UniProtKB/TrEMBL annotation:
Organism, scientific name: Sphingomonas sabuli
Gene Ontology molecular-function annotations: DNA binding; double-stranded DNA 3'-5' DNA exonuclease activity; endonuclease activity; metal ion binding
Cofactor(s) listed: Mg(2+); Mn(2+)
Official protein name in the record: Exodeoxyribonuclease III
Gene behind this protein: xth
Endonuclease/exonuclease/phosphatase domain boundaries: 4-248
Entry-linked InterPro entries: AP_endonuc_1 (IPR004808), AP_endonuclease_F1_BS (IPR020847), Endo/exonu/phosph_ase_sf (IPR036691), Endo/exonuclease/phosphatase (IPR005135), ExoIII-like (IPR037493)
Residues the UniProt record annotates as site (Important for catalytic activity): 218
Record-stated family: Belongs to the DNA repair enzymes AP/ExoA family.
Annotated active site: 106, 147, 248
Enzyme Commission code: 3.1.11.2
Enzyme class, UniProt record, top EC level: hydrolase
NCBIfam families in the record: exoDNase_III (TIGR00195), xth (TIGR00633)
Length: 257
């Protein structure tokens, strides 16, 4: 099964990009983030016409997550993290697909740091850790994909010194991600490519993509039951080079289920 994560940065405006990528890359399951549209305006019919069942949780102008599947209808198990006091923010959706629990997230950015938005980010990541532990305790094959808005290490950023004052690279955020992985999750990219500089996001300005001046903030964490079937992982940089595209590229994993 090929499972991908794609921060589409506006599903309505980037719908032609998404449909083209789905046709060319042919992922089995996709987690989309940053839909930036309401539930009513989500382009479900176009996505279904492309061969994908879909569930989604939208929000006007901001956030929003969706799960697409062409290998069986996703059976929703959760939207929103347990204990989240702000149900208006559409940041997490989870479903069972072909016996795999897929949690798809768009974590808070947290800037400016320090400040209330960063405090909210850390609290959200703490709730994610608690739910992730519950998933591990269930022993079910599970994957947590999405835009974590965390640069885990210096190897995940083009120039670490340029991000020292950014919430994505803050010590507390990196520590939260490290603690999450330490529960027993496998970072698919780092498991298979331990020493490569692999990025998933490049700013639109200063020719960042052409210079490969990027960061890795989109991740796939696999539970032990699923990690034993990990076959491949990477980033499909192709759509990042298209016109009017997202500033993210899709990252993906292939697992034997």
């Amino acid at each position: 099964m090929r499972i991908a994560s794609y921060n589409i940065n506006g599903v309505t405006s980037r719908l032609p990009i998404l449909l083209r990528w789905l046709e060319e890359f042919e992922p089995d399951v996709v987690g989309l983030q940053e839909l930036k549209t309401t539930d009513e305006k989500f382009p479900a019919s176009e996505i279904r016409a492309a061969g994908y069942d879909v569930i989604w949780h939208g929000q006007k102008s901001w956030n929003g997550v969706a799960l697409l599947s062409r290998v069986g209808e996703p059976v929703e198990t959760r939207r929103g993290l347990p204990g989240d006091p702000d149900r208006n923010q559409s940041r997490y959706i989870e479903a069972a697909v072909c016996g795999v629990l897929v949690g798809n997230m768009y974590a808070p950015n947290g800037n400016p740091w320090p400040g209330p938005k960063f405090d909210y980010k850390l609290a959200w990541l703490e709730r994610l850790q608690a739910h992730a532990q519950d998933l591990l305790d269930s022993k079910a094959p599970a994957i947590l994909i999405g835009d974590y808005n965390v640069i885990p290490t210096d190897e995940d950023v083009y120039k670490p010194e340029n991000w020292k004052k950014d919430a994505l690279f803050a010590p507390e955020a990196k520590q939260a991600y490290a603690e999450l992985v330490a529960q027993g999750w496998t970072d698919a990219i780092r498991k298979l490519h331990p020493d490569e500089r692999i990025y998933t996001f490049w700013h639109y300005w200063r020719n960042s993509f052409a210079r490969d001046a990027g960061i890795r903030i989109d991740h796939a964490l696999l539970s032990p039951a699923l990690a034993k079937g990990l076959k491949a992982a990477g980033v499909d940089r192709t759509p990042r080079g298209w016109d009017k595209t997202s500033d993210h590229a899709p990252m993906w994993v292939e697992v034997e289920v």
